[in-house]
Amino acid sequence: MFKKGSKLYSILRAKCPRCHQGEFYVSKFTYNPNKVTKIHDNCECCNLKYMMEPSFFYGAMYVNYGLTVAISIVTFLIATLIFNASLLQSFAAIIIALVVLVPFNLRLARIIWINMFVSYDKDAVKKVK
Q1: What is the mean pLDDT of residues 88-114?
Q2: pLDDT of amino acid 25
Q3: Over the stretch 11-60, which tens digit does the pLDDT of each residue have?
């Protein structure tokens, strides 16, 4: 399930969706707003162009929306059912969770989005060389 060749491997390790070797992001996880979504132009191993067309990653906003809704629901349920928080306290917990997880959501949404369109090719590196 998490082995090389699966979509989850590429998503969780932020690797190139085609060869699963090259790094997708320029920097590791950071809260720096200038670096959080900075991606390489091409994969260093298989030369896959990450920005397939202009504004390709605008579609990742829909994935980000889904992640945000899921986090909000989980946070609300935890706050109300486990901690017996009031409605106002639950909404405060949701806002705090969403603000803290903004960089994580942005990065995860982009890597999920590109994995929806690019499949693993075990021979991708050999074809380039």
Answers
A1: 97
A2: 96
A3: 999 999 999 999 999 999 889 989 999 999 999 999 999 999 999 999 99
Backbone angles phi, psi at 5, to 5 degrees: 110, -15
Cβ(45)–Cβ(21) under 8 Å?
A: yes
String of b and e for 53-88 (b: at least 16 CB within 10 Å)? eeeebeebeebbeebbeebbeebbeebeeeeebeee
| 69: Cβ contacts below 8 Å, ≥ 6 apart | none
Tokens of 12: 């969780």
Q: How confident is the model at residue 2 (pLDDT cuts 50, 70, 90)?
A: confident
Q: Which two tokens stand for residue 24?
A: 């997708």
Q: Give the distance between the most distant pair of CA atoms in the chain.
A: 60
Indicate if the alpha-carbon torsion angle 52, 54, 56, 57 is positive or negative: positive
H-helix or E-strand spanning residue 41: none
- CA count, 13 A, side-chain hemisphere, 119: 2
Written as six digits, the tokens of 25 are 């992001």
pLDDT score recorded for residue 125: 80
